[in-house]
Amino acid sequence: MQPPKATRFPNPRDAACAACVWVCLVLVFLAYLVCTFRTFLVAVHSAHQHRTFNQRVQTPEVRLDICELQVLAERLNYSLLERLRIDRELEFMLPNGTEINHHDSLNATSLAAVDINNFRCIRVHGMQQVPQESVLPYHRWWLSLEGPIHPELQRNNFSYVSGLFARPSLAENASHPVSLKEEHFLKLWVPFLAEDRWAVVQSTAAMDKWTDSLGGRWGAPYEDTFFFRANIIVPGALQMDVPNVSRLPRVGHRLKIVLPIPTTQVQVHEHFNDLTGVLIAWLGRLASGAFIFSVLTMMFPSVREEKFRLFLHLPSLGFGCPETEPLQPLQP
Q1: Which CA distances in Å does 310 have to 111, 161, 313, 316, 318?
Q2: Is the per-residue pLDDT at 15 higher than 80?
Q3: pTM of the shown model
Q4: Helix, strand, coil distribution of the chain in percent, nearest 5
């Protein structure tokens, strides 16, 4: 809608009123455009549909993050990770009946350390990627500690050692937002004088992925990732009748962590960004705004083809013209 011309109004005050109203409408329309555009930008970077389903997917290798609190290690000037011994084992069966078993030992000091929030961790990578068609794969780790043990970390007269945390993970990036949210750290008590202990971790393999209606990943705030959902540890009973010894051993007993993968089904969490629908909705809002802006021209109905008057006649305020009032000739 073009701005109203003063020469088309028989009453000068009507022309001024129409100009003010037109300016207000333009400002409102511009504000509407800005708001709708901001809404559009937010919408194209957001997922509009979320669904969860099970699917057979080849999972990556399983990792075990073994961590300690940075603040505690710095305060004690003592690191359990530097005294950690690790053995790992992978066992699974192929559909043809072939049994696969791998076992080796690791030196924790040779593993690269990573920082995860307030934890300092080492990542123990899997021995291999388990084939998708494998049957009942089992991942096992044995942890033991070398002495001397700091007195503040011992429990029950050096029967156990506290201060370590473990987190089974499928995420390639240890600091991935989904991994930090879903893969919980589990507190460990590693036997030292007590007998060997076991702990079974129950987890569900899952995947977080983003898609859009154009076949891409527009709006995804992070990379797609696998992760373990709902890490739950089922520990073995603590040994309470540990005999006293006159001299502590150089290496303590072992904690066995077992992670079975009961199924090849992966729980997929899919986030869908409907870019096409967002664009159509935004164009519809623009069209409706322009239509309403045009309809508001009815506030100035024509008296003749070239003349307009305010739709209200307010003599006390000087606005409008009576319908029977003769029109003034146009100024040359």
Answers
A1: 83, 88, 7, 14, 11
A2: no
A3: 0.73
A4: 25, 35, 40
